[in-house]
Specification:
Elements: H1 7-10, H2 63-88, E1 104-108, H3 116-123, E2 129-136, E3 143-151, H4 154-163, E4 168-169, E5 172-173, E6 175-178, H5 217-304, H6 337-385, E7 417-418, E8 425-426
Antiparallel strand pairs: 1-3, 1-6, 2-3, 4-5, 7-8
Length: about 425
């Protein structure tokens, strides 16, 4: 089909010219010939350095050694600076230390936001103040956190020194001490290796938390108060936890008691339903018993015909007498175990004998009717023959008395008699 395409389309399928062959610029690695083959390091041994002329090896410094060296150098520099400043430090010739040293109070650990007016309001309660000097940094101009307060009277300074230590100002407890630079010989400030008082000697291993005074009972009492407050808070937290645990346990007990009460109510309802069901069953059985008694009496009355004076035996002779009406209380109550057992036995016996007794009653009534018919026919034939009462003849009816009873029956009050016609044991009628 392609041969029928036009030339312009056939030109699209035409092959290109073959690529011209060009010689390679250099030989391939496997075509190259190495003029000098590979060799070991033996020719270069003579270039190595002689071990006897080599310098001894140097040991590099580790990171821990470098940090320890820098720390020692810093301590040495600081000691040199402190020694230089101690030579230049003279508190008696300090231009900033003005006024009477025995009326000046030193206040440290001051909040950086506390102003001079705030300090004046807090410390004027102990007496009139002559001058307040707050110390600021020379480089940044920010407060350093301590100040000097000069009172007009020395007794006011002693009062503030005694009562203002540990006072909270702007959320921080200040430390109050006397000015020791001009009053205590050999005392040095902390920046020069000293401390605030006799117990402020330097680091945390030698310093104590209260100011350098002999009477530390107030601080001990404050610490005891703080410990008591901490213990009280802990006891309150423990009480809250215990109260919460008791509340949770009481909730659990109430939940369990509610569930138990619900189960008990459900069981009591089930027991009441069972009792109602048993009561209804007993009442239905008693009604069924009464109905059967009525039906039996109706059948006996209907089967007697003209012989209304003939008393038929009742079912009461076969079944034991009831103790009373269904709702009457027995010796153990209406639902006593003996009454229940008697009812169950009585119902069982009656249910087993009901069908058999009805069949026996029907057979007994049929036999009586047949016997009465035969006796009536024989009496009519004797009267027609003129035999009178038929007392001298043996016609097989001498057992029949004048009252219509069979002479084969035993007198009243016996346990029963045997009927000669069908061999059934007939029971005597009750009194």
């Amino acid at each position: 089909m392609t041969q029928f395409l036009p030339p312009n389309l056939l030109a699209l399928f035409a092959p290109r010219d073959p690529i011209p062959y060009l010689p390679p610029l250099e030989k391939l690695p496997h075509e190259k010939h190495h003029n000098q083959p590979y060799c070991g390091i033996a020719p270069y041994i003579r270039e190595f350095e002689d071990p006897r002329d080599a310098p001894p090896p140097t040991r590099a410094e580790t990171r821990e050694e470098r940090m320890e060296r820098k720390r020692r150098e810093k301590i040495e520099r600081r000691q040199q600076e402190v020694e230089t400043e101690l030579k230049m430090w003279d508190p008696h010739n300090d231009p900033n230390a003005q006024g009477d040293a025995f009326k000046t109070l030193f206040v440290a650990r001051v909040n950086y936001d506390t102003t001079e007016s705030k300090l004046r309001r807090e410390f004027e309660v102990y007496g009139p103040i002559k001058r307040i000097h707050m110390v600021y940094s020379k480089r940044s101009g920010k407060p350093r956190g301590y100040a000097f307060i000069e009172y007009e009277h020395e007794r006011d300074m002693h009062s503030a020194y005694k009562h203002a230590d540990g006072k909270k100002i702007d959320g921080r407890r200040v430390l109050v001490d006397v000015e020791r630079g001009r009053t205590v010989k050999g005392w040095r400030p902390r920046r020069l290796g000293g401390g605030l008082g006799g117990t402020r000697r330097g680091g945390a291993d030698v310093n104590i938390r209260h100011s350098g005074r002999d009477d530390t009972s107030r601080y001990d009492e404050r610490d005891r108060d703080r410990d008591r407050e901490r213990e009280r808070r802990e006891r309150s937290r423990e009480r809250d936890k215990e109260r919460e645990r008791r509340r949770s346990r009481s909730r659990d007990r109430r939940r369990r008691s509610r569930s138990r009460d619900k189960d008990e109510r459900r069981r009591s309802r089930e027991r009441s339903k069972d009792k109602d069901r048993d009561r209804k069953r007993r009442s239905s059985r008693s009604r069924e018993r009464a109905r059967r008694e009525r039906e039996r009496k109706e059948e006996l009355r209907g089967g007697g015909g003209g012989g209304g004076d003939m008393v038929e035996p009742s079912e009461a002779g076969d079944a034991p007498p009831d103790d009373g009406p269904p709702g009457e209380l027995g010796p153990d109550g209406p639902d006593g175990p003996e009454e229940k057992g008697r009812d169950r036995d009585r119902e069982r016996r009656r249910s087993h004998r009901s069908e058999r007794e009805r069949r026996r009653d029907r057979d007994r009534d049929r036999d009586r009717e047949h016997k009465r018919g035969e006796r009536g026919g024989e009496r009519g034939r004797d009267e027609a023959r003129g035999g009178g009462g038929g007392g001298g003849q043996d016609n097989g009816l001498e057992g029949l008395g004048n009252d219509g009873r069979d002479m084969y029956m035993e007198p009243e009050g016996g346990d029963g008699y045997l009927a000669p016609e069908n061999g059934y044991l007939m029971e005597a009628a009750p009194e």
